[in-house]
Amino acid sequence: MGYTKEKVIELLGKSIESDISTLYNPKKNKYINNKETDDGYLCYDEIAKYLLDPRNQFKKKFDSIPEKKRSLLYKQKTHNIRQKEKRLAHGLQETEFEDIGEIIDYEIPLKINKNDENVGEIDMLAYNNRKKQYSIIELKIQKNENDSLLHAILQIYTYYRQIKREKIVEEYKKPTDKDKDIQKVVFIFKDSRQYEDLQSLKMQELAKFLEVKIFVLEGKLLTF
After folding, report:
1. How far apart are CA 42 and CA 85, in angstroms?
2. Would you give the DSSP letter of residue 42?
3. 83 part of a folded domain
4. Based on the structure, what is the number of domains in the chain?
5. Is the N end or the C end of the chain the one with fewer CB atoms within 10 Å?
6. Does residue 2 sit within a domain?
7. The domain containing residue 207 runs over which residues?
8. C-beta separation of 105 from 124 below 8 A
């Protein structure tokens, strides 16, 4: 199915009104990962423009996503490392990053139970001992040309709204500064689809608007 700019905006509005917690999900909204519309517009730019327009009250609606009342543990005893992304996350354990701190866990489930649909996993969890602050991280592998940066930004913000902060602190037993919220971070590689998308000023503006930090692996942390 092709998508014109007009069609993308129409579908975007419907997605926000019907279930904004699945907006990032390309299985529900295939246009999220599109590079261009059929009539020649940058798809992610047009979506960002819509989301940043105060008339659409996107942030207010996004912040209405409820916390997932998960009673099961976030901290898992075993992990599945068959997928490339999870193998990379596993390999980054105990690595220290600027501002973010040490990667302390990965593959953190958000589902309330096994029948809870349309809920994913946080790729990685980091803790900065100096700042006493946690970060949740969405990781995009270098060869992943299908996922847009827009997808990653919306995904980590959705997970940020769904995670139970007190439960994270309780399970991982790290002291926190009450004045510092959990950071939202996206890890990408240079020479990737996501890094190319990052050159868009609208994508930088959207990241700043949602307070999502972008970390370019083999590079440096970018805060807009």
Report:
1. 27
2. B
3. yes
4. 1
5. N
6. no
7. 68-222
8. yes
Q: Judge whether 54 lies within some domain.
A: no
Q: Is 192 helix (H, G, I), strand (E, B) or coil?
A: coil
Q: Tell me if residue 97 falls in helix, strand or coil.
A: strand
CA–CA dist 102, 134 (Å, integer):
9
Find the angle CA(207)-CA(213)-CA(217) to the nearest 5 degrees. Answer: 120
d(CA 162, CA 157): 9
CA atoms within 13 A on the CB side of 158: 21
Handedness of CA 207, 177, 107, 111 (dihedral sign): negative
**102 assigned to some structural domain:** yes
Which CATH number belongs to the domain containing residue 173 in this structure? 3.40.1350
